[in-house]
Design brief:
The strands form two sheets. Strands 4-3-5-6 form a four-stranded mixed β-sheet, sandwiched between helices. It has a two-stranded antiparallel sheet with strand order 1-2. It contains seven helices and six strands, in the order H-H-E-E-H-E-H-E-H-E-E-H-H. Helix content is about 50%, strand content about 15%. It starts with a helix and ends with a helix.
Amino acid sequence: IDLPVQGLRQAMTPGESTDLTLSALLREHAERQPHAIAILAPGRPPLTYGDLWRQVQRIANTLQSRGVTPTARVAVVLPNGPEMAATVLGVAACAVCAPLNPAYRLEEFRFYLQDTRAQFVVVGDNDVVILKSISAPSMDEFDSLISVARRQAKTAGLKPAHVEEAIARVRGRK
């Protein structure tokens, strides 16, 4: 998301705090330029800042109405795309967000869910985003969630080799 942070900071009153949250920056940009394009994705209509902000608010409000608090840890397991971006921003607006790669292997999901101490997980099923409360999911529930995430990753064209290559690049091996 390309937000003009410098312009926002210059518009602030002298002495006003410049510690802005991502949600505050997004809201400000949506108010100033609601029709400006925020996200482009191949084969999809552009998502404007106004539309993105409305989606982020709807997601955050829904999560809060379901008991998600600012200190709750929420794992997000969705394939890359506008829905994932809006969901991560919506979760981050009201809780601690832990985006997880839907192509992770079962052992990796177990590790990251334990490491982040996620209390909720957001997954997608067809075009529906599902919030699931977790403490320690049963193996059947966990396997079902992973299965859904893997199907979505496959549908999105994500392959294990893509993930391995990205990890190697980040680690400076390629």
